[in-house]
Amino acid sequence: MFKKFKLNRLLFFAPLVTLMFCFNAPQNDDEKMQTIMISVKNTLSYLHYSPKPINDAYSADVYDKYMEMIDPGKRFFLQSEVDEFSKHRTKLDDYLNRGDLTFYKLTVDKLYDRTAEIEKYSQEILSKPINFEENDELILEPKLKKYPQNQEELKNEWKKFIKYNILQEIETLNAKEETQREKKDSVNRLKLKDTIKLEILTPAQKQVKATEEVKDLMTSMFKRFQKRKKMDWFSVYMNAYTEVFDPHTNYFSPQDKEDFDVNFVGKVIGIGATIQESKGKIKIGTLVVGAPAWKSKQISEGDEILKVQSKKGEEPINVTGMLVDEAVRFIRGEKGTEVVLTLKKKDGTIKEVKMIREEVAIEDTFARSIIINGANGKKYGFINLPSFNADFEDAKGRNASDDIKAELIKLKAQNVEGIILDLRNNGGGSLTEVVDIMGLFMNNGPVVQVKDGNGRVQVMRNKQNDPIWTGPLVIMQNELSASASEILAGAMKDYGRAVIVGSPNSFGKGTVQTFVELNRFLNSTDDFGSLKLTIQKFYRINGKSTQLKGVESDIPMKDVFSYEEIGERFDNYALPWDQVNSSSFTVSNPINVADLAKNSQSRMAQNKFYQLLLESAQWREKLDKEEKISLNLKDFEAVMKTRKAQIDKFKPLIKYNNGLNFALHADEVTRGKTDEVFAKKSENWMKNLKRDIYLQETVNIISELK
Prior knowledge:
706 residues, 16% strand, single chain, 22 strands, seven-stranded mixed beta sheet, alpha+beta
């Protein structure tokens, strides 16, 4: 949940923080990192909703968090080095106070040195035949692992890791071979033209091929690591400090903030092409129809990018071997400016392509709807809302409430008899968008209560009295529905305006964040990044917090996440649950959810596919909790054979069809005739909807709403 931090809100702190945050312009990276440390410390201490004392206890928590982040698999550092690091365990608070890089440099320098050693070990291990008849095993659960005592144990740990990856690749080859054989048998059985390529490899050949694949993967992994700058690791270090305050307070480097803004707003200034890395090469991926790359008619998926001339008159920059995100930053730029790509085409020719950057919408961010033709002859509208996106900088930019309004108008024109709003996997977004969306479904009234660090409670109200949709409404949620999704679902539940369907509880994030730009307080033109900072907690209009507990579904249905540790309550540093006084509100139209729930539970108990899905989820969760695995080839194959038998049992879920009939809007059908990418996305979307057991049941539920 994010809130635009307006300047007038910030002025209250200005006299204090200006004195605290004034520095001279840093002359190098060390000085810049020191400045960031002190700025982060001051911002946390003075602006966080619930500031922690910066003391030895805090230092110990930060130390533990950082060690988990920098070497989660205990695969890089030796025990002797960790013993040396632990001498700083209660000093990290002092380092933060004075901007001391001692511990950061100690750990990161050692990490770079160790990675260079491990790369040599890996090359040595992969250059010799690997014995798959040994009865060794790999510990999968990091909590059970110990740091290697010496170089020999470290080398042995990497040998096991490499062996495990080769075994997985062999299994992948086995699975591909079986899939191709099944396809070929099907083609022959149906007497169709056989175009299936089936390559049968011997076990020895598979082992060689798998080993070569792992060699490539390891080479790529170490190359990416070598290209990772120390400032990137510094972001990890700073986030150990911030996330101990609470899991949603994070330090963002300038580049990370740019990426966040792109996803939050749903637009980017660029050429409209996915950029991806393949074996060290930067390549063009999917093109956005109508965007500069597509309009050029000179760029194709798979083209290799050799150079980028980011600004007119400047020398082109060689991007070969760069990290993808670094190359992307050269391609992005200001709207209306020229960018020139030097491309190596698939036929080997080299071509320069000039383009003018444009604003490109990332459509997967925005709401989209479709019509469901029910078996009862009635039509229902389905709206998927991936995020509560908002463009704070552009008055003409897209936002979730306007998009939902547009979809509702289209659906009403089709005379639908109910609306299903899908908030599954929606992690939140703008607080103001929730309030505006409430106004599309009901008359004015309180929507959410917000409390600041001083205990002041503010009620945010929907002031609209002209709702677009007043008919039956069902909201779908799951364990990944968080923050803004929980506000909307909670308010709709409290008013009795909608039936909440899905996982027993949503994620449980009941906090509000804002971005504070660190250079706002510094005497410098450098960009020091931003702090995403928890400044408030929000509460339902009934006074209860969604923090930790989330929103309970009126009609609970377990799903694939229900057996996993997903949710705020599983984070050690999450803020506690509490409550405030209830707002004054009137339940609009009480729904008899008891009867709906009873009918739904009866149907789901008899739905063999639903029961199979739950069995599958429990089985996969059991796999995730396995602590060890054998690296003996025969034993590994036996384990895989057992797993395959289980997977075969769950195969009907892949082919499941819920029987629902979907219809795209007429304008989308027209668009799909010229926009191949959009047409393919629409096709895949409908395929997934047809496999959705929960959507099928939600249609049953809404058909019973009066």
